[in-house]
Amino acid sequence: xxxxxxxxxxxxxxxxxxxxxxxxxxxxxxxxxxxxxxxxxxxxxxxxxxxxxxxxxxxxxxxxxxxxxxxxxxxxxxxxxxxxxxxxxxxxxxxxxxxxxxxxxxxxxxxxxxxxxxxxxxxxxxxxxxxxxxxxxxxxxxxxxxxxxxxxxxxxxxxxxxxxxxxxxxxxxxxxxxxxxxxxxxxxxxxxxxxxxxxxxxxxxxxx
Length: 208
Hints:
Elements lengths: L10 E2 L12 E3 L1 E9 L7 E13 L7 E8 L12 E8 L12 E8 L12 E8 L12 E8 L6 E2 L18 E2 L15 H7 L6
Parallel strand pairs: 1-3, 2-4, 3-4, 4-5, 5-6, 6-7, 7-8, 8-9, 10-11
Organism: Vagococcus allomyrinae
Protein name: Pentapeptide repeat-containing protein
């Protein structure tokens, strides 16, 4: 996992200054303590920057590009991040309730202690991505391209992995009683002994 490459010296800027720019971009900047709702800011480019306690809610951020960025305690709930691109990005304690990420590309990206309940990733590619102790209840991973993806200590209750090849995915440290998967795409995945009953039931096998 490559870490974000961010210089020690960053300029203080306001997210609000981007709203009037035709081709908005943020470079080597430090942003914090701002709240926005129902804004449209497409094709935003952000590089080598840090965000703290920023909330962008119910907004359109389609095709946002993030390279070498750390987000801490930020909230993007119910926003549209369709076709986004991330590379060397960390999300620490962030909220993505109902956030849309369809047809996106994630590379060397970490979600640590984040709330991604009901988030939607359908049709995305994820390469070298880690989900650590995060809430992914009801998250939709329909038809993902997974390569080097890891889930550690997450809640995956009622998450959907239909159409997704799960070879190499280790579910054993994660919590769920219901999980939607294609059993023919589970070959090469790892589950705990306690989780075997769920998959046996999906096969219609009764255990006495």
